[in-house]
Design a protein that fits this description.
single chain; about 280 residues; alpha+beta; eight-stranded mixed β-sheet; four-stranded antiparallel β-sheet; about 25% strand
């Protein structure tokens, strides 16, 4: 289990008070620093790293989260900012695709956002895949072990569609939950649609449709995400509580894909739409 001292890395990332955070004495154990650097090198070289679960048999889930935080801390020292979280593996389709039977989470950095009018160079990634999701932007802090679904819902200021590009720096062959977590839940890039205020009623019944070059390629209802995307937020709040942290006002949270991920190739235009939300569009170069 991650000791309290190491959990302070996450809290420092989520409650920054200066450009040098997390402070030098919160770098984490040497093995976690080396693993985070190994993943960063795999990303830069565009060559997958050997699985953490194979090289360090018996590694615990909390230790994998520690690798994730250390990697994020290394990016923060290079000028990145944490802007929220992603929850992954929340639908049966995604769990079946990767052979993992429970959700995980990762940290969103500002450098992951592909802004409107910009293309995503696919060649910068190893083997990118794209998926459509519902996302939230928090209007109030929310934390605690006993938080309820209504309290989480009330903390949401805006709801929006999002495209997430995932890209496992370990590859997918033999991937386990701890590998996914250490690799920041495979999050690579995100595209956010225009937000609407609050949380619409019956979000579970919202049908999301993903098109590639104008042709429908995948679809799914909000209920595919733990029965209701808001429950993804609830899962995340409780998970963060176990590390002494919580969600902050302004955080963006991706709730998880409503369908299995699809390969992303150069030249494609991917769009995500639904009856009530403005679409999110990604142009791959």
């Amino acid at each position: 289990m991650v000791v309290k001292r190491d959990s302070r890395i996450l809290m420092a990332l989520l409650e920054p008070c200066g450009p040098d955070l997390p402070p030098a004495d919160l770098d984490g154990p040497h093995w976690a620093q080396e693993e985070a650097l190994r993943l960063h090198k795999a990303e830069l070289d565009r060559l997958p790293s050997a699985l953490l679960s194979c090289r360090r048999p018996g590694v615990a889930l909390d230790e994998a989260y520690l690798v994730q935080w250390v990697g994020a801390a290394q990016r923060v020292r290079q000028g990145a900012q944490v802007i929220g979280h992603k929850v992954g593996l929340t639908s049966e389709a995604m769990q079946a695709q990767f052979g993992i039977d429970q959700p995980d989470s990762g940290l969103l950095l500002d450098r992951m956002v592909v802004t409107k009018g910009h293309n995503l160079p696919v060649g910068d990634l190893l083997a990118p895949r794209v998926e459509g999701e519902i996302a939230f932007r928090l209007a109030a802090d929310v934390r605690g072990e006993d938080v309820g679904e209504e309290e989480v819902r009330d903390a949401v200021g805006e709801c929006l569609l999002a495209l997430e590009v995932i890209d496992s720096r370990y590859g997918v062959e033999g991937l386990t939950l701890v590998d996914s977590v250490a690799d920041n839940a495979a999050c690579a890039r995100i595209v956010l649609g225009r937000a609407l205020s609050g949380v619409p009623e019956d979000l579970a019944d919202e049908l999301l449709t993903l098109t590639v070059d104008g042709t429908i390629a995948a679809s799914g209802y909000g209920r595919a995400v733990l029965g209701d995307p808001v429950r993804s937020l609830l899962w995340l709040v409780r998970r963060l509580h176990s590390f002494g942290a919580g969600l902050r006002a302004g955080d963006v949270v991706l709730a998880g894909a409503v369908h299995a991920s699809l390969p992303l190739r150069p030249g494609q235009t991917v769009a995500l739409s639904s009856p009530r939300f403005p679409e999110a569009v990604l142009h791959a170069a």
